[in-house]
Write a structure and sequence with these properties.
elongated, 2 domains, alpha+beta, 393 residues, six-stranded antiparallel sheet
């Protein structure tokens, strides 16, 4: 049972992260240490995707594990020896409880801090000085400066043959050329320093006035070394954590339900808290929901049952997400959009589990799924015969 669960968890998490990695590369490509930043951002996304991957992996692992035991008649052997299905399910229920507690911890405490850290990295990436985005042979704009670099070594922050033009408005302009240079980073959030070597500088004291023939005062100098600050005077600081309800832990949500932060509303706070609680409680329901779908006779349509079960859990997940959005807008109560679907799923899972473990009556839903699967198989066989296709071995 643990092997399918671990495999589904790892594969699902890697697929989710790989899909997000493409968009992160678009955001960070060309910036300093872009690949390092991408992996840092992916690490902050792991808790977010674990909230989705844990219940999906648990449900799929239960379907595959109990389905294999049922197909190999292992469950029949256990029941013949006096060990019922309910007793076999006890370790799985305990596993579901452990997964639910883990999900509560991740969604209630880890996710808010990871989300804030991810947003702070995105802020830093988007506010990095434009010099770090420079490309060889391309004119770039940095505030009131326009520059172009011939050769660029990002690893050493060094460049060769640079042209820099600074427009000072009514006070004129500065034009600087340099044979080589370095970008020196300073500690404490200070602006980086542009270190230039072997260059020329042309300074115009005032902006030329169109139509006037009087020469503009200018000054041309040469220099072997010159330093100039680059970028903004002060570095922007990312806001404190807690402006968004999704950045707040469960205790913080409870304390601030009536006094939400400026970017949230009371309905959004209640919807966020309810969604986290519903997601954690839903994991407790999954063992009771998965086992009846996985266990069946040797003639049952196991693949169709698995597809139906997965479709059911995907639809439920979508209902919870949309319900949280509706409750957050104040359109409907969170009791109706979040807690009612959770209660209905619990009743449905409990009814099927009780019928499977403690009664000898048939399973009407399982029988209906098997009949639908038989019809699909019959239609497939008819299509193979109709078009003369060779039946798969």
């Amino acid at each position: 049972m643990s092997l399918p669960l671990a495999g589904a968890l790892v594969i699902g998490l890697l697929m989710l992260l790989a899909d997000r990695m493409v968009s992160l590369l678009d955001t960070t490509l060309g910036k300093k240490n872009s690949f390092t930043v991408v992996f840092e951002m992916l690490a902050y996304l792991v808790p977010h995707y674990l909230g989705t991957a844990i219940p999906a992996a648990l449900f799929l692992g239960l379907l595959l594990g109990f389905g294999k035991m049922s197909a190999n008649s292992e469950i029949d052997a256990f029941m013949a020896s006096g060990i019922g299905l309910n007793r076999l399910a006890r370790p799985v229920v305990l596993l579901g409880l452990a997964m639910s507690m883990l999900s509560f911890a991740i969604q209630g405490w880890v996710q808010p801090y990871a989300r804030y850290a991810f947003r702070s990295v995105v802020f830093e990436v988007k506010n990095v000085d434009v010099f770090y985005l420079a490309e060889e042979g391309v004119f770039m704009q940095a505030g009131d400066r326009t520059f172009i670099i011939d050769k660029l070594d990002r690893n050493a922050n060094a460049f060769q043959r640079a042209f820099i033009f600074q427009d000072k408005g009514k006070d004129g302009s500065d034009t600087v050329t340099a044979a080589r240079g370095l970008l020196i980073e300073n500690d404490g959030g200070k602006r980086p320093t542009l270190h230039l070597e072997d260059g020329h500088r042309l300074t115009l004291k005032q902006r030329p006035v169109p139509g006037e023939t009087a020469p503009t005062a200018s000054q041309a100098t040469e220099f072997s070394l010159a330093d100039t600050p680059l970028g903004r005077i002060s570095k922007d600081i990312f806001r404190p954590r807690g402006d968004d309800e999704r950045e707040m832990t469960i205790p913080e949500l409870l304390r601030n339900l009536d006094t939400p932060p400026k970017e949230s509303s009371p309905s959004e706070m209640v919807a966020e808290l309810s969604e986290r609680l519903v997601n954690g409680i839903s994991i407790l329901i999954l063992p009771f929901l998965a086992i009846p779908f996985a266990v069946g006779s040797r003639r049952s349509q196991r693949s169709m049952r698995t597809v139906f079960a997965l479709a059911l859990i995907v639809i439920y997940h979508e209902i919870i997400q949309q319900g949280a959005n509706i409750a957050g807008k104040g359109t409907a109560s969170h009791w109706l959009t979040l807690w009612l679907p959770c209660a209905l799923l619990a009743l449905f899972a409990g009814w099927r589990y009780y019928a499977m473990c403690f009664t000898v009556s048939g399973d009407p839903l399982g029988t209906a799924i098997d009949r639908f699967g038989d019809r699909i198989s019959g239609l497939k066989n008819w299509l193979f015969r109709r078009f003369g296709w060779e039946q798969p071995a």
